[in-house]
Amino acid sequence: MDGILPLWKPKGMTSHDCVFKIRKMLKMKKVGHTGTLDPDVTGVLPICLGKATKIAEYITNAGKEYVGEVTLGFSTTTEDASGEVVQEKQVTRDINRQEIIDVLNSLQGEIQQTPPMYSAVKVNGKRLYEYARKGIEVERPSRWVHIYEIELLDEREVFTGENISFSFRVKCGKGTYIRTLAVTMGELLGYPAHMSALTRISSGSFSEKECVTFSDIEKGLEDHKLENYIQPLDRGLSHLPKMVINDTLAEKVLNGAVLPKDDFWTYGEQEVAVIYQNQVIAIYKIHPEKPYLIKPVKVLNG
């Protein structure tokens, strides 16, 4: 069973929990997820089955879209609603709509983030959350992330109250922490804040409307129609440039051959999905040491 199962992750489960459950349901070992979602977060979690596990990283690295809610007035250890309160500051003024829009606009483009202590980023071989659970604070490496689009979803003109909340939609690149983005929104508005709700509505080319639940999977197994829910492996690489090849070249590609770049390579430094008989059979890129050659990054049907 090879392909991608677009799962709608329920609240209360980790991404690993979802993989473990699907392994048991489908009775197969080669199952992997495509980007961690926190237990409190619901949404699109493409699950790779069989050969598709080879391309999980490409879905993980593709863009993602979220709908979230930020609450002003207090921050937490985890930067979301599940953590302990660490700082409080009552909102004592009205905040107008344009002020929030200006803050969101200022966060578009390349921004720098420091991962939260409760995250899966590794420092000195350990996950940050392992240090956090022991009460150990360590220096965290900042990184640049890309915010492609961000917009306010709340229609109010004026926001009032001791703890103001508002909803937003964000389209972002890999490695973006929406929890940290919510905290930054609060800081720019002058208040401690946390992410009070989050749903991932798309991951790569997979959207909410095509996702299945665990109940759907159970029914699909009972009715012997599970294949109706499984998307082809190629869907996970739809954002890569495509190069269609003939029979002669296909044999070399399937054997993982290094090839001369010649004149047919017009893709620059990008990785390219190699297509034969309407299927992706490999991913190639320019050889890092011999720029006159191209080499396989992955051979998918060898």
From TrEMBL:
Database matches in CDD domains: PseudoU_synth_EcTruB
Source organism superkingdom:
Bacteria
Q: List this protein's GO terms for biological process.
A: mRNA pseudouridine synthesis; tRNA pseudouridine synthesis
The record's section on Pfam families has: TruB_C_2 (PF16198), TruB_N (PF01509)
Keywords of the record, alphabetical order, are: Isomerase, tRNA processing
Write down the EC number.
5.4.99.25
One GO molecular function term of this record is: tRNA pseudouridine(55) synthase activity
SUPFAM superfamilies linked to this entry: Pseudouridine synthase
In the UniProt entry, which residues are flagged as the active site? 38
Which Gene3D superfamilies did the record assign? Pseudouridine synthase
| Keyword flag Isomerase | yes
| Catalytic function, reaction form | uridine(55) in tRNA = pseudouridine(55) in tRNA
Q: Any keyword Electron transport? A: no
Q: Where are the transmembrane segments?
A: none
This molecule's function is given as: Responsible for synthesis of pseudouridine from uracil-55 in the psi GC loop of transfer RNAs.
Report the sequence similarity comment from the record.
Belongs to the pseudouridine synthase TruB family. Type 1 subfamily.
Instruction: Write the protein's name.
Output: tRNA pseudouridine synthase B
The gene name on file is: truB
